[in-house]
């Protein structure tokens, strides 16, 4: 677990989120072969999908889909399409074709093959593979993800109930942007400009900060988080964000000799009593609050910082171009039935 900035790839501007976080694309398209290890049904047509894989719009020419490559009863093509739409629907140029849903030797585990392309570069298609679990609730590639038409619903509900860190923006939690951050993490510092832009572009969003100190690599992050808890108790949420920004700005001072001075100066800048805040950060109550915030992140699969969870959808904050990130936020809001008042630069979003 470390504070990290995920390396961008050629897919960053359109499909990076799903590809980087779960699926492993393979450049070039070919007819999806039947899996030689799959247990083919006695009558392949009996287990063919109820609805054939839809042809995508645009000028992309995908390989012809062979019904013999649909040997698993579950998931259905419609379920796979709904799942991928939840991930990629924000990008109107992204098109895909479900190419195969195959049985595997593991009972109930299905292998799903999807052809993917971008209408602006139709010649640069890819194929990607993932597996679904017997209960139909998870998809697995290099990570385990919730599968289904609404894969973020449970995480969204959990954060609505338990993400009670310092907040700014809207009072309601219909549209929640929850940032999991480490006050000693350089990339979290870099992410603050993005968070300010999101606050300006989405005034209807409630933006919450949850401490996720990575003490394995940042020895003063936990103390910084605990003092932030105490500043908030003294002076409120707005004061916490002043404190946090001051710590980010003075991260170089988080050393053995300078940490206490740096944190107390940040508390003073936020209008808090630095002596009271310093005493408070050493209490078990403050430490327990930080531990609970980090555990909340761990419970939803957070293991790096900075991460932003948009209505349950966890995104590597610094690996996404801002124009893509705001499209995802707008898309997720609308998918969850939340009318978004788009800022002028977002007026063309669908």
Order of helices and strands: HEHEEEEEHEEHEHHHHHEEH
**So what's the CATH class of the largest domain?**
Alpha Beta
What is the overall shape? elongated
Average pLDDT:
84
Number of helices: 10
Uncertain runs are 5-57, 346-350
Strand content: 15-25%
CATH topology title of the largest domain = Glutaredoxin
| Major sheet | 6 strands, antiparallel
The CATH architecture classification of the largest domain is 3-Layer(aba) Sandwich
Question: Number of DSSP strands?
Answer: 11
Number of self-contained structural domains: 2
Rg from Cα: 23 Å
Helical residue percent band: 25-40%
CATH homology superfamily name of the largest domain: Glutaredoxin
Structural class: alpha+beta
Spatial separation of the terminal alpha carbons: 36 Å
Report what the structure shows:
- This protein has 350 residues and is α+β, with helices and mostly antiparallel strands.
- The protein folds into 2 domains: 16-149, no CATH class; 155-346, Glutaredoxin.
- Helix content is 35%, strand content 18%.
- The chain is elongated and about 70 Å long.
- The two termini are 36 Å apart.
- Residues 5-57 and 346-350 have low confidence and may be disordered.
Task: List its salient traits.
350 residues, alpha+beta, Glutaredoxin, elongated
Q: What's this model, at a glance?
A:
Helix content is about 35%, strand content about 20%. The protein is of the alpha+beta class and about 350 residues long.
